[in-house]
Every structure is written in C-alpha cells, then in structure tokens.
Amino acid sequence: MNLCLINHNFRYELEKLVRIFMPFEKIMFCDSEEITDLCAVTELSENGKYAFARLYIGGEIFNKKLSIDTCADDMKKEQELKLALGLYDCFTRATGYFPQWGILTGVRPAKLFSRLCKKNGMENTEDYFKNSLKVTDKKISLCKEAVNGENKITSLSRPDSFSLYISVPFCPTRCSYCSFVSHSIDKAEKLIPKYVELLCKEIEHTGIIAREKNLRLETVYIGGGTPTTLSAQQLETVMKAINNSFDLSGIREYTVEAGRPDTVTADKLKAIKSGGATRISINPQTMNDSVLEVIGRKHTALETVNAFRLARSLGFNNINMDLIAGLPSDTLESFKATVNKVIDLDPESVTVHSLSMKRSSNMTTGGFLPEIEAGKTASDMVDFAHETLSNAEIAPYYMYRQSKTVGNLENVGYSKKGFECLYNVYIMDETHSILACGASAVTKLREPNGDYIERIFNYKYPYEYIDRFDEIISRKEGIKEFYDKFST
Fold first, then answer.
1. pTM for the structure as a whole
2. CA distance 95 to 17
3. Looking at residue 268, which CATH number applies to its domain?
4. Of 194-203, 266-275, 361-370, where does mean pLDDT reach its minimum?
5. Owning domain of residue 12
6. Backbone torsion region of residue 326, taken as left when φ is above 0, otherwise alpha when ψ lies between -120 and 50, otherwise beta
C-alpha cells in the first residue's frame, strides 16, 4: 500500500499505526497523494491548523479532519497525535476493528503511564490514555496494576546495581512462531562444546570488570533459546563459572529457563539447583497436544506435567510457566482449558504472551481481515487469563508489548505475592545495567544516576561468536569506559 505523508515527516509513528491493522502489508512511502487500490493519506494543512486523513480501501474512501491546538506546548507532538487519530478513525470505520490499545504502539505502556502520572496526576493520565490515545478502560486498569507491581521492584535497585544475562541460543527444534536467534540441535550440536568453553571465558572476563567497577549484582538470568538443551555437565560448568566470577552473596533472584519440557531431566534440574538457581521456567505455551504439533513443539502436555512435578519433587519452589494466546489452531475453549490445567499445577508465576508474528518466523497471516479475526479471539483469551489468574491470586506485576502482535495485544507477567520475577521488570523498565554474555546477547548500560543508556552487542550467531570471540572480549572494555564517564 501507499502511505502518503504530505507537509510532514511523521513517518515512524504512522507506519506503526498502519501495522496495527495491516502488520505484513508492504508499505511504500510518498510525499504527494499517489492513489492506489490500497492507500492511506495523511496531510497537514499549510497553515498548520488542521490534520487530514484519507483511506482508500476496497473501493471505498474514508475521510477524517481534525483541528490542531495551535497553543499546544509541543506542537510537533500535537500534530503527530492528530494525524494518527485521523488515520486511526479511518481504519476503524473501514474494518470495524477497535484495538484495545488504541493508537498506542510503544512497548512499555506501563512505563509511559507511570511517567505521566508523576507529571500530570492519575486522573489526567487516565483521561489522556482514554480520550487522546483511545485506550480502553480495561487496558488502563491493566496499566495501573502493572505500574503498582513494577514500582515495588524497581525501588529495590541502587545506582551501582546490575543484572547478569547469559544466552544459550540452542533449542531441540525451532518453534514455528519463533523469531529469536536460536538454533536447533540437529544443526548446531557440534558447536556447543566450544561455545560453552568460550561462554565461560566471557563470564569470567565480565566478572573481573564488575568487581573492578564495584557493581552490585541483583539478579542472574540464564535464557535462550533453551538453556536445558545443554547437558547436566555443561549446565554445571556454566553455573560454576558464574559462581566463581561474581559475588552472589547479595543476589535477590537467580533464574534458569528450563523452557522446553522435553529437555528437562532430573540430572539437569539437580545441576541447576546445586548451581544456585532460585527460580526456573517450564513453558508449555499450550496444554493442547494438537496445537503443540502445529507449532513444532516436540513434546506433549503430559511431558509438561511430568517435568513440572519432577521439579517440585527436587525442591524447586519458584516455578514459572509461559503461555501464548493466539497460537494457530488454538481455540478460546482450548486456551481456557490450558489456563485451568496450569492453575491446577499451582505454579508461582505465569507469563501470558500474545503471539507476535515476525517475518523471520515460519508463520504469518496475510491481509488485515484474517489478522483482525485472530486478534478478537486472542483478546478473549488474554481477558480470560487475566480474570482467571487474578481470581487464583496470581496477579499482574509487569507488562510489555511487541510489534506485529495478534490483536495488538500485550505480554503480562502474573505471580503470587512475593514471587514476581525481578529480572523481567529490570530489563523492561531499563532500571539498571544488564551485563550480557553469549551469542546474540546485548549488554545494556544505564547511567548510575540518570536515564542515559548505551548498548554493546555481541555477535548474533554461535559460529560468529566462536570465530570472532576476541572481538567480543574487546567490546567488553566498553563497560569500563561507560562507568568511567560517570565516576565521581
């Protein structure tokens, strides 16, 4: 489709708005009105007093004209808002689809809500979300719940705090919805021994830097991929490197993802527990075997139950389970059954993701009408999960969003009181620095007493990580340089 931008350059936000309705449509930009069968036009009047939107779709034309407040404190923000609202109005009339997050496209709505509350007060912030951003009352309420949970956790962090992330980018098989940099064992198994060896060296080097800069470790998170793709001995080796390289005496949380139930064994769980982990994640995504088969998960719901019970028998008292709303072939009734089965297992926390479909995954949907229907079902799913989990006293404590999510929905972490995942909040809120090791890992450095952030990227793929490891170590010097800038 053509997206015409006339007398303005608000390309980024308007493209994201179009993606709410048409996530995979190829967009061509132009600075004049070039009409095609599918075309969106956004225009500012020459005198700056009006915003116009026009949508040509299915042989019909939808128009909207909005007045611009020329006395607004931030004129560019006001212009962008009115153009977005105009285009949003055209799309909702054309499709009959009213996204629950309105025109809001950011990944951290709770953080925005919190910041505006501090600046303008709760009442004004709620009014802005509802009337200016078109967010529904239900999602505003979710924002408030998430803000309350997140604020309690972020208050624990200090200027010298940091978290440690370890990347294990290997999986038994690649799920059809996955867009992460992860590699199936059948293609990458021969790389694992060398990868583990070098990962331990990077961990050791990073620990030296953390000690030199007197940084305080708050949480450890070993993710992927699927860390339990490693053998028990390899897990033990990685966790021993962490224990030897960092002061763990004051950490508040240590998570290892045991995400794929078909990778969970007693020996691996024992290695994880003896290595110091206080929290694990066993992720069914769905408890429907036919859906598991469709998405390429090579395990059954029974294997999930067995893995969970095995972990319990070995003394794990903080277990998370991930679910995904909107998976292909899943129905509302099937999803309800999944939620109820998970609650019956009695995990300490449940994370409900909305399916985010990327071009790099093996699944996409074409056009906006199939996407809208899938979004309506997914919306019902997340609503059921929220109500049912909350009734079971597993309450929301953090939230974030991704692009091209079915129904333009959100991902929400739920937990019993006292079992919230601190790392999840720290990484999404950008509370403090995250020192990251491994392929595809990104070190995110936050100014100790400010909001400035720098990133240091590791190579994405395991073979690059192995072949160019010296460069990885060299880049770690950027951590020292960053903290030296802010030393007093």
1. 0.91
2. 14
3. 3.80.30.20
4. 361-370
5. 1-96
6. left
